[in-house]
Amino acid sequence: MAADREDPPDALQAAPPLVHYTSPDEDSARWWDFEFREGDVVVSTRSKSGTTWVQMISMLLVCGTPELPDRLGALSPWLDHLVWPKDEVAARLAAQEHRRVIKTHTPLDGVPMDDRVTYIVVGRHPLDAAVSLYHQGDNLDRARMRELTGAPEPTEPPEPRPPLDEWLVGFVEWDGDPREWLDTLPGQILHLNDAWSRRASPNVVLLHYDDLQADLDGSMRALAARLGIVVDESMWPELVQAATFDSMRRRPSTYAPDTLGVLKDPQAFFRHGTSGDGTALLTPEELARYHARVASLAPPDLVAWLHREEPA
């Protein structure tokens, strides 16, 4: 995903220039003229860090029922994804009468900040997110994505990917410009660094993937409080059950973020959602190198939060 700073439309000139993030299938400029409403929720995460899970939780809280009225991707569209025409996505959101929940993988410095909107950023251990990203790569139909976005056919066949453990070492060592490629270790930290710097803002919420795993009920109640949503106490058990990873995995066609054939296997999108896969694949020396890299990219308090450690 390439990035540069550009001035958004005149209505947003009072804010700092937004970073323009682009990739073969994303364009953050779609946010620049988006018309927010009071109460909108923007879910901003790096890939494979719990995006769909938090969209689901948010829509369950908004609807107040374990059975959503439509597919999750229709209720909570991905605004800057180029597989859908911009006008079509905007029209779908404009027609919604319920509180809107909108997905993006764009960091908050590429999205207009509006006091009427709540921005949810999710953190996940970078190595776990990387493992999920590796498997996700095998499940994407690249030809279908090019067909939908109009991207040109590659002139040469892609090089075969190395085995996961070797690829993960490369993920740790990659040292390019994170704004050019966000699905990297520096890109993940850039996204979280930006959100971390805004964490005192009343409309910015940071969630951790491991907290959702450890205490889904408590995490959902805390998020409902931040969103100002009151849930009937009798409904909580059903809502929490509906938000479990297992419940979502049993209905992949309803909850996977794809209706256009981008995913080869929607059920494979919900692989298993656990933590610890990444660290288990690295040797002690490789893991030490990972920790050194993260320490060079993020402040100690963010590192401690991200790794669920006590601050140094």
Entry summary:
The chain is α/β, with parallel strands linked by helices. 43% of the residues lie in helices and 11% in strands. Helix 4 crosses helix 6.
Helix content: 40-55%
Instruction: Specify the biggest β-sheet.
Output: 4 strands, parallel
The CATH class label is Alpha Beta
Which CATH architecture is right?
3-Layer(aba) Sandwich
Categorize the overall geometry.
globular
The CA-CA distance between the termini, in Å, is 33 Å
Number of domains: 1
Could you list the spans in which at least 5 consecutive residues all have pLDDT below 50? none
Strand order of the largest sheet: 5-4-6-7
Kindly name the structural category: alpha/beta
Describe the structure.
With 312 residues, the protein is of the alpha/beta class. It has one domain: P-loop containing nucleotide triphosphate hydrolases (Rossmann fold, 3-Layer(aba) Sandwich), CATH 3.40.50. The chain is 43% helix and 11% strand. It contains 16 helices and 7 strands. The protein has helices at 51-63, 72-75, 86-95, 126-138, 142-149, 164-173, 185-197, 209-214, 216-227, 236-242, 245-249, 252-255, 266-269, 277-281, 284-297, 300-306; strands at residues 2-6, 18-23, 26-27, 41-45, 101-104, 118-123, 204-208. The strands form 2 sheets. The protein has a 4-stranded parallel β-sheet, with helices on both faces. It has a 3-stranded antiparallel β-sheet with strand order 1-2-3, with no helix packed on it. A hairpin with a 2-residue loop joins strand 2 and strand 3 (26-27). Helix 4 (126-138) crosses helix 6 (164-173). The longest helix has 14 residues, at 284-297. It is globular, with a radius of gyration of 19 Å.
